């Protein structure tokens, strides 16, 4: 008889997410993932001025707002028949790049690392670092006054096999603290041209509404250099240390094995040159990406809207009491297939395409340090490694892009909102492929549909009863102690789920 383990809510992710797994002889034999709230942004947008869209959709999330803003202005560019100015295109890359760095550092240190790094080790720290000594004093006093171990905000945590090398623990904990500063710096860098962050004020159809000046270039560059140094000397090393200590996690959490990337970061105004290329890998074969093959199923989702419809013509009608449905997340499929999206998908597509020699060199270098093969990347640890590698690539590119700006040249091109029009904005959010589909009637938004990275990854079963990507990644995992299902939490967190986004 299978034992049921529920994690509800899954903590240290964004939003309200629950998983229910069935375990037989300590192995997960069945998994269900539920997004537990409805938000309604697609409904809120109907009937509004299209120029509200990049501001309203950014409120879908506080972690990846920039990508929603970018998807929205790409959809509007298309609907208005315009292309961004050169400065505008570059600024969009730089603002999105800063947000990637913020988001990936947040995910590794503040959401996922404490699944591996032993925060309790701080109580054994005897060195001279004032930050670590402060933290040690605070944790010790919290533990003694509340008799709870280890201490808030490092609670709750499962008992399990944390890193035993305390030097690695101390370094990672020190970087955990430093990462808080680094995230603020990433926001500051983005805000130089975004006006403010997390919700960028300057993202606009035709480019970006902030002017390019020499002082802004200097400010952005100096913050980005600090970020690059933290990524090179802190983040990457910590990921390598964790990966070396947990080699089994290169075998766990494989998932559906299909990967989808829409591509992002335009490097030329003809849209043909993307830093992260688009592509689809199904059953090990790479193919070009066709946006017309995207549909969303709703059989097991709490919506009465028709199932299997392309997002350009679909609807979002909540049905909270629908029988057989167990999630507020729809089930996006590509040509009917379950797909994983995110940093691992981007790295796999780019690596297999083989055109980005720098990425290939970074991936091969990391695999050789860890004594692993490319296929091992399809795993919990592979997702962490891919995220770290692309953080480095993005930071280096941001430093290059900032030098391509031309002060005094326009950041935006002019446009008129048409009576009617349609547009699709496809980009890559930190967590993966993101699309906004827009149609305009009487100069107002007639329909607005978003298909979001975590909607792909955390989807429930589709109409064919095929489990979603995270549901599949949980299958077969060995759960040592059902009271402390750390293995399941590590698998889920490797995807960096954001349920606020997924249900939008
Ligand atoms: Ni709310 Fe988001 C997701 C990302 S979509 S964090 O899923 O990345 O832009
Ligand atoms: Mg949607």
Description:
By secondary structure, the chain is α+β, with helices and mostly antiparallel strands. The protein folds into 2 domains: 457 residues, Cytochrome-c3 Hydrogenase, chain B, CATH 1.10.645.10; 33 residues. It is built from 14 helices and 15 strands. The strands form 6 sheets. Strands 1-2-3 form a 3-stranded antiparallel beta sheet. A 3-stranded antiparallel beta sheet has the order 6-9-10, covered by helices on one side. The chain has a 3-stranded antiparallel beta sheet with strand order 13-14-15. Strand 14 and strand 15 form a beta hairpin. The longest helix is centred in the middle third of the chain and has 32 residues. It binds NI-FE active center and magnesium ion (MG). NI-FE active center binds next to helix 3, helix 11 and helix 14.
Please provide the count of β strands.
15
The outline comes out as globular
Identify the CATH class of the largest domain.
Mainly Alpha
CATH topology of the largest domain: Cytochrome-c3 Hydrogenase, chain B
């Amino acid at each position: 008889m299978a034992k049921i383990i529920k994690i509800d809510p899954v903590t240290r992710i964004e939003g309200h997410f629950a998983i229910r797994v069935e375990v037989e002889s300590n192995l997960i034999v069945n998994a269900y993932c539920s997004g537990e709230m409805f938000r309604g942004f697609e409904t809120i947008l109907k009937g509004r001025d299209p120029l509200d869209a990049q501001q309203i959709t950014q409120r879908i999330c506080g972690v990846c707002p920039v990508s929603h803003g970018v998807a929205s202005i790409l959809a509007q560019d298309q609907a208005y028949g315009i292309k961004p100015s050169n400065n505008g295109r570059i600024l969009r890359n730089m603002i999105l790049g800063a947000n990637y760095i913020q988001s990936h550092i947040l995910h590794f240190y503040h959401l996922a690392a404490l699944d591996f790094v032993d925060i309790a080790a701080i109580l054994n720290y005897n060195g001279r670092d004032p930050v670590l000594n402060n933290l040690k004093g605070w944790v010790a006093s919290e533990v003694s006054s509340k008799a709870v171990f280890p201490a808030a905000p490092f609670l709750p945590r499962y008992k399990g096999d944390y890193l035993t090398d305390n030097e690695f623990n101390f370094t990672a904990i020190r970087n955990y603290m430093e990462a808080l500063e680094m995230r603020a710096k990433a926001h500051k860098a983005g805000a130089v041209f975004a006006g403010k962050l997390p919700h960028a004020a300057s993202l606009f159809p035709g480019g970006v509404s902030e002017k390019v000046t020499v002082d802004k270039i200097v400010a952005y560059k100096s913050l980005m250099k600090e970020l690059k140094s933290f990524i090179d000397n802190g983040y990457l090393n910590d990921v390598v240390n964790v990966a070396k200590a947990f080699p089994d996690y290169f075998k766990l959490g494989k998932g559906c094995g299909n990967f989808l990337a829409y591509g992002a970061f335009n490097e030329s105004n003809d849209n043909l040159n993307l830093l992260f290329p688009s592509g689809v890998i199904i059953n090990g074969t790479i193919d070009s990406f066709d946006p017309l093959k995207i549909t969303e199923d709703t059989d097991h989702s709490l919506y009465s809207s028709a199932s299997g419809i392309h997002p350009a013509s679909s609807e979002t009608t909540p049905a909270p009491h629908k029988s057989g449905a167990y999630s507020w997340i729809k089930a996006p499929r590509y040509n009917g297939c379950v797909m994983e999206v995110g940093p691992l998908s981007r790295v796999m597509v780019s690596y297999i395409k083989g055109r980005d020699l720098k990425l290939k060199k970074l991936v091969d270098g990391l695999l050789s340090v860890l004594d692993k093969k490319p296929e091992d990347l399809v795993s919990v640890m592979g997702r962490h490694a891919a995220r770290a590698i692309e953080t480095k690539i993005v930071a280096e590119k941001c430093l290059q892009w900032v030098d391509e700006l031309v002060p005094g040249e326009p950041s935006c091109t002019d446009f008129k909102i048409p009576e009617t029009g349609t547009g699709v904005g496809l980009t890559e959010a930190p967590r993966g492929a993101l699309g906004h589909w827009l149609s305009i009637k009487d100069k107002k938004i007639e329909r607005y549909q978003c298909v979001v990275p975590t909607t792909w990854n955390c989807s429930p079963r589709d109409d064919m009863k095929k489990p979603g990507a995270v549901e599949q990644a949980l299958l077969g995992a060995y759960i040592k102690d059902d009271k402390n299902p750390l293995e399941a939490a590590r698998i889920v967190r490797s995807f960096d789920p954001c349920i606020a986004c997924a249900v939008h």
